[in-house]
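User: Can you help me understand a structure? I only have the sequence.
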Amino acid sequence: MNKWSIFLISISFLFSCSKDRITTDEFQSMDEFFEEEQAEVQEFVITNEDGNQPIVGKFGTKLFVHSSLFEDTTSRGAVEVPYTIQLIELYTVKDLILQKMNSNYTGGGLDYVAGLWVSAKKDDQYLKLIDGKFLLANLNTEVRPFVPTVYYGGNQIKPWSAWLASANGSSVGINNEVYEMNLADLGWNLAARFQALAPRTIIKFNYQGKGLENIQLFAFVNNERQVLKGGVMEIQGVPANRPVTIIAMAMDQNKDFRFFRKGIIATGVTDIKLEFETLTREQLLLQLTALD
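Assistant: Let's start by predicting it. Here is the structure, written out as tokens:
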């Protein structure tokens, strides 16, 4: 073998190694993406309580607030104007995903109508609802053929962990084709109906790459608004023998977004190979919008 042949083989080998390095995906954290795209915290400073006009959120939620509903969390003293109300509105599957939440629930899932985070502050001190009093919230969403229940997710924006059935009397009613939430607790409240998912199964995913723990996995029960969030390369608690849609999204080492969507009927433990397409941020957000 002459020197020229050895040179060509060496170049070919180096090119092959370089190509392998370029095509090996290494997924990055999507935390910054979620922070930038999730529903904003809206603030309303209440300086006048003449009349009974509600606060109206960006997406149409109406909050009927009054200082007589609140007390200081430490001194339990009365509250006077001015004070501040904070609001986050969740109305879509996209909203729930971007908030890094789900509608998982022990023994099943929650078919969700809307989620609200409401807080009240006076001089940077958080307030609470007086025991036995309720904050009325009118939801800006179509009334579906059921009356939902209120599930509570704690009073902190983060960390959010799980939904629990409200224990303090929060409820939902329908008045003139409008859902009315009567909230006994500030914080996260979800209007939803419980749906048993038994029998359930696991969907496992496979992909050759690094940083697989940064791939975001979700499953949705078709024709319902249940959002099941996955862990590392698997989603547990998926209803068996029912049509579901699964999605995976990630951000690679080049800051490009990856997306995968597939409709399946899981009959047992299912293995799925992720076949990502590359999207811009705007295209990824449109894909999430289309989930509703």
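Now, to help you interpret it: Residues 3-23 form the longest helix (21 residues). The helical segments are 3-23, 31-37, 93-98, 281-289. Let me know which part you'd like to focus on.
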